[in-house]
Amino acid sequence: MRVYFDYNATTPLAPDVIAAISSVTRDVFGNASSVHHFGQQAKAAMDGARSAVATLIHADPSEIVFTSSGTEADNFAIRGAAEALEATGRRHLIASAIEHEAVLNTLKALGRRGWRTTLLPVDDTGVVSPERLRDTITDDTALVSVMHANNEIGTIQPIAALADVAHARGALIHTDAVQSTGKIPVDARTLGVDLLSLSAHKFNGPKGAGALWIKRGTRMQPILTGGKHERNRRAGTENVPAIAGLGVAAQLAAAKLAPEATRVGALRDRLEDAILRAVPGTAINGARGSRVPNTTNISFDRVEAESLLIALDLEGIAVSTGSACSSGTLEPSHVLRAMGLPTHRTQNSLRFSLGAYSTDEEVDRVIEVLPRLVEKLRGLTQKAAGARG
Ligand SMILES: Cc1ncc(COP(=O)(O)O)c(C=O)c1O
Known about the structure:
The protein is 44% helix and 13% strand. The chain is an alpha/beta fold and 389 residues long. It is globular and about 75 Å long.
């Protein structure tokens, strides 16, 4: 039996998404910018997807710009807003310290080009405080970027309160909603932001398809220049099959958001409670209350996370040590570090992320296997220490 508990890295495609991608790939090959029948067919497929994505985040279809990924949507939000606001003289950008690399490294790149950048700290549960933003923001701040839900620990940020603070100083605010969209209700207007990123492959859509929501009237410059695609906001002939797949994934997510959140949340809670009960020396990282329902991040005392990850993989169980992008390195998680966790806990934590196809049987399997593996690894560590001593 194989168990996949790494949905925050990526998700399997829903069968209806696969069907849509195949039929559009086969039957709808036109260029969506062409005026003839073939082009109009492609444009109709994109219009349908645009409406579905807009419905999922309670936005207007005209405000949705399709991108090649969540990474591109984040780059577009930050670079596009920075370039548009440069003329106002504002030269300061703020993001939280626990953002995804798509945001952090974009800020770093702009920092090398003369922008002043500030990373907002988080508390020990991984939450950014609006008061802290109020103390940090200045009249020079162009944009604030704070993620809606964190990919490693699942914590949900108080975006609406942060948006009020940003707007009071005349700054724009972006939220990376890649890990919340499709998991919990996301209402772009209620969140109060100007820009919102999402990515299809985090909610059973294809990889290489994302979107940036740009609130009507927001000053933005395109970062990909060329033709007049996406109302002059993002040049490049559109990947219509992937966009159609994103649309179907959005439709599916919107149709079962609340019952799925309850179902997946119950599985996650059962898994989490059982691990905490069965394995001594475990603790949850992040705010237990305000989290997306599919994620838990747990530290295991006296176990190296990479060793446990490999031991679980050998038993057919796939989990993660944090963000997929930094796995393969023994770098401690920047998220857990920003929360002020002691070094050993930043290196002994595993992320379990569940999703649409997770089952009770999978949870049972992990509960059956994990305590034994942890005990074995702890025994080996103790033996090695004994041999050294
Ligand atoms: C919070 C967050 N932002 C952005 C991304 C990047 O999205 P994509 O994989 O579509 O480039 C990810 C993916 O891991 C993510 O978790």
